[in-house]
Specification:
The protein has 15 helices and 13 strands. With 464 residues, it is an alpha+beta fold. The two termini are 28 Å apart. The structure holds adenosine-5'-triphosphate. Keywords: ATP-binding, Magnesium, Manganese, Metal-binding, Nucleotide-binding, Nucleotidyltransferase, Transferase.
């Protein structure tokens, strides 16, 4: 919400309930020994009419999970399958989370509150259903910076520390526990369709397609797209458009998600599930975030290809209700859409207006080459070159004739804020872990929000 805007009214709904019999299981939240409020996102809460809750009420709803009035009567753990590192896994589903509430935002779009670390479900397998506090803090940092950088991301709504000791192979253990609530437009994944396709539930695929089209509305396919009136084809086009933009937005943010499995692909196009993510210390296509990604499958430069592959899996799942050629025609749009979104977002981050496709593409290529050569962190590069300043050497020509287009802000005349690279993330966590000092995290979030203000909103993609 921008300054001066009125807080939205709370407008509960529960359309998911209609699908719940075959898409989800009602579950009970864990009973935590402690509930210490660590983060409440009042900016996001104001958008859904929940900023007026007292801290006690907040904890009752977002750590004890007392139902919010008028929305889902019970938490729903969603069923899904997914390709994990390209291997099909039919045993997953919400193993440590659930959809807790649905509501309308001020713009009329559906929003959901979903959890992470809220207890076991039928899909927990042998795991504990919990989230580490460090995992929660990392998710907060990633979502705040991505939001500032114009990425369509889930938002971290609430973090409550829960007083348990957790054992993890990738954190010094025992480690502290938390329950996180996130706000996003939905939690229907490509893996949700894969599961229904695999189980040959064509009627349910149709129902889920209709739900997505009505709850997450988007544009119709281009005029010349084959099968453009069929619901599954329309959805396929929308998901391709959204994920092509998502891939572009991560590249321009210098962000490596780390685990681009099909169960982590939201059909709304929102970035979510922040595990081993990293921001780039330097421009390197081979930079890999997850220590367990030995082949570099989800390395920085392979993210667009991974999302394209995931869209292909959605097409396969939708084959049960649509012909292949129109689905493939939608899939083929991914590459050109991606390139267009990279150009648009790159110029936005530089604060420059477009000079046409060719010059814009040449500028992107020149900037990439300059970063590769110098080893400069992308955040620093974009800051130094905001509005086309500081161009030198081969960059001078590439920047020639581009005009400033972004808002002015005092930040652009200050030294660049430090990048949120791994050492910085670890330092912020260490203050909490060693001294229970939350001030460095709070200051970091304030600095990130100021960067978001300085950048302004990313422009919407144009029409077809
Ligand atoms: N500690 C845990 N307990 C139970 N299930 C877990 C745990 N950690 C991961 N899972 C499950 O393993 C699968 C893959 O985990 P992943 O980290 O991608 O998802 P997640 O972060 O738990 O949830 P989301 O994708 O909604 O962010 C999911 O089905 C998830 O629910």
């Amino acid at each position: 919400m921008n300054a001066g805007e009125q807080p939205a009214a709370y407008r509960p709904e529960h359309p998911l309930l209609e699908l719940a019999d075959w898409l989800a299981d009602p579950v009970a939240p864990a009973d935590f020994p402690k509930t210490i409020l660590r983060w409440r996102n009042d900016r996001a809460a104001a958008e859904v009419g929940l900023a007026g809750l007292s801290d006690d009420e907040w904890i009752a709803h977002f750590a004890r999970f007392d139902p919010l009035p008028g929305t889902l009567p019970a938490p729903l753990a969603l069923r899904y399958h997914g390709h994990q590192f390209r291997v099909y896994n039919p045993e997953i589903g919400d193993g440590r989370g659930f959809t807790f509430a649905q509501m309308r935002g001020a713009d009329g779009r559906l929003l959901e509150l979903g959890t992470k670390g809220s207890g076991t479900t039928p899909w927990s397998r042998t795991a504990d259903g919990r989230l580490t506090l460090k995992g929660a803090v990392r998710e907060l940092l990633a979502t705040e910076l991505l939001e500032a950088l114009g990425v369509n991301t889930s938002r971290t709504f609430s973090i409550v520390e829960t007083g348990e000791e957790l054992w993890r192979g990738d954190e010094p253990s025992p480690t502290r526990s938390a329950v996180l609530v996130r706000l996003s437009h939905g939690h229907i994944r490509i893996g949700s369709f894969q599961r229904l396709g695999k189980l040959e539930e064509a009627g349910h695929v149709r129902e889920l397609v209709d739900y997505c089209l009505s709850q997450f509305p988007g544009p119709l396919p281009p005029d010349d797209a084959p099968g453009r009136d069929e619901p599954a084809v329309i959805l396929m086009h929308q998901v391709v458009e959204r994920l092509a933009d998502l891939a572009a937005s991560w590249m321009v943010a210098g962000f490596v998600h780390g685990v681009l499995n099909t169960d982590n692909m939201n059909v709304t196009g929102e970035s979510f599930d922040y595990g081993p993510w990293r921001f780039l210390p330097e421009w390197d296509a081979g930079f890999t975030a997850a220590y367990f990604d030995h082949a570099g499958l989800y390395a920085f430069g392979r993210q667009p290809e991974a999302l394209y592959w995931n869209c292909g899996q959605l097409a396969i799942a939708l084959r049960i209700v649509a012909d292949a050629p129109p689905l493939l025609a939608a899939l083929e749009r991914f590459g050109p859409l991606y390139m267009g979104h990279v150009r648009r977002r790159w110029l936005w981050r530089l604060g420059l207006g477009s000079r046409g496709e060719e010059r814009d593409a040449a500028l992107v290529a020149a900037c990439e080459a300059a970063m590769r050569e110098s080893g400069e962190a992308p955040d620093l590069f974009f800051h130094r070159h905001r509005f086309g300043r500081a161009a030198e050497g081969p960059l001078t020509q590439a920047f020639e004739g581009f005009e400033p287009a972004g808002p002015s802000h005092p930040l652009w005349d200050e030294p660049a804020p430090p990048s949120l690279v791994i050492d910085r993330v670890e330092a912020l966590w260490s203050a909490i872990d060693k001294n229970d000092d939350w001030d460095p995290l709070t200051s970091e979030i304030a600095a990130i929000r100021r960067l978001g203000e300085a950048l302004g909103a990313a422009p919407e993609p144009g029409g077809h």
